[in-house]
């Protein structure tokens, strides 16, 4: 298949020059762009990455993490993680405050909409509370570098909430111009927080399902993982299936269960976790998965573990197959 020149264009930094060169696969047009844009982009990304290395934040992170983990949330903690919807709840909840605040900014430009703008500012402040709570419980179960970026993200959003709350008060006192200015500052803070949230989610992979690639890495069909006697009853045993680690558990009744070993939350090793009541508990943050089907019984994981079908041959060979593999 022949790609058009438009889609074969690529760009490289010329070695040692800082100059961005562009070319097309067809050789149709070549040229150079000033490297300043590329350098600015690289500096920007580097400074975002640098947030994850700010060890000075760790003095605050430790006590905060303990405080968030100590909140008496009961089963609501899993709801805030997003367990019932199968993915983190925080990104869904932030739509309301951000949407309200952006709409208020638009209304601030439209004459005669002062009341509506103030209502939207207030709705944004109130709806930011559950969104922030969901974010905090996720944050408390992340890796160090993610928590450092997350803390700066939370600081930006806290500033936005404070500015918007003040904006709501000032608008109520008739100081509309001041209220609008505070709203604009709040929108900048919320935008910065949103940018950091995106960096955290996509570059630092704080929220995605870490078990998602498994069906793409396992070949279709049946694979041998050992013999029944290789698996002591009630113990989690790690096996490799190509690039994919597995956790194999032989139950007291003789039934053998096999799940992907890397936890869907942060890729923790389930084979090093506790086995009890037909479940395995991740040693890193305590997510609990049912051995029979990989369903997650307790968060912070929100996605299930890939569960393999198991066949025991007459000679004791244990074979596994992932139904949607390949
Ligand atoms: S890695 Fe966090 S619960 Fe498993």
Q: How is this structure best described in words?
A:
The protein has three domains: 5-50, no CATH class; 56-203, no CATH class; 214-321, Rieske Iron-sulfur Protein (3-layer Sandwich), CATH 2.102.10.10. The strands form three sheets. The protein has a six-stranded antiparallel β-sheet with strand order 4-13-12-7-6-5, with no helix packed on it. Strands 8-9-10-11 form a four-stranded antiparallel β-sheet, with no helix packed on it. A hairpin with a 2-residue loop joins β8 (274-276) and β9. Helices cover 43% and strands 17% of the residues. By secondary structure, it is of the alpha+beta class. The chain is built from nine helices and 13 strands. FE2/S2 (inorganic) cluster (FES) is lined by residues 141, 263, 265-266, 268, 282, 284-287, 300-301. Residues 223-319 form the Rieske domain. Keywords: 2Fe-2S, Iron, Iron-sulfur, Membrane, Metal-binding, Transmembrane, Transmembrane helix. The chain crosses the membrane at residues 119-139, 151-169, 181-202.
């Amino acid at each position: 298949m022949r790609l058009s020149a438009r889609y074969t264009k690529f760009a490289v930094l010329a070695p040692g020059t800082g100059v961005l060169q562009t070319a097309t696969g067809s050789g149709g047009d070549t040229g150079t762009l000033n490297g300043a844009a590329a350098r600015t982009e690289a500096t920007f990304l580097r400074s975002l990455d640098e947030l994850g290395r700010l060890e000075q934040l760790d003095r605050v992170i430790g006590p905060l993490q303990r405080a968030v983990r100590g909140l008496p949330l009961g089963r609501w903690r899993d709801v805030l993680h997003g367990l019932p919807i199968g993915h983190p709840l925080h990104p869904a909840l932030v739509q309301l405050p951000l949407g309200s605040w952006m709409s208020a900014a638009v209304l601030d430009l439209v004459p005669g909409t002062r009341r509506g703008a103030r209502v939207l500012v207030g709705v944004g402040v109130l709806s930011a509370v559950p969104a922030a709570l969901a974010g905090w419980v996720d944050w408390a179960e992340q890796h160090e570098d993610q928590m450092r970026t997350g803390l700066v993200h939370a600081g930006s959003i806290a500033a936005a909430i404070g500015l918007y709350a003040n904006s709501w008060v000032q608008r109520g006192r008739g100081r509309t111009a001041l209220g609008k200015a505070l709203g604009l500052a709040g929108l900048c803070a919320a935008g910065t927080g949103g940018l950091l949230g995106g960096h955290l989610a996509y570059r630092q992979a704080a929220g995605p399902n870490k078990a998602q690639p498994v069906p793409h890495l396992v070949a279709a069909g049946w694979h041998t993982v050992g013999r029944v006697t290789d698996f002591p009853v009630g113990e989690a045993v790690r096996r490799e299936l190509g690039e994919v680690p597995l956790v194999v558990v032989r139950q007291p009744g003789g039934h053998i269960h096999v799940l992907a070993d890397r936890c869907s939350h942060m890729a923790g090793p389930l084979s090093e976790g506790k086995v009890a009541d037909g479940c395995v508990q991740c040693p890193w943050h305590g997510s609990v998965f049912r051995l029979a089907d990989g369903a997650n019984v307790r968060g912070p994981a929100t996605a299930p573990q890939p569960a393999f079908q198991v066949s025991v041959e007459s000679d004791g060979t244990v074979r596994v197959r992932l139904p949607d593999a390949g």
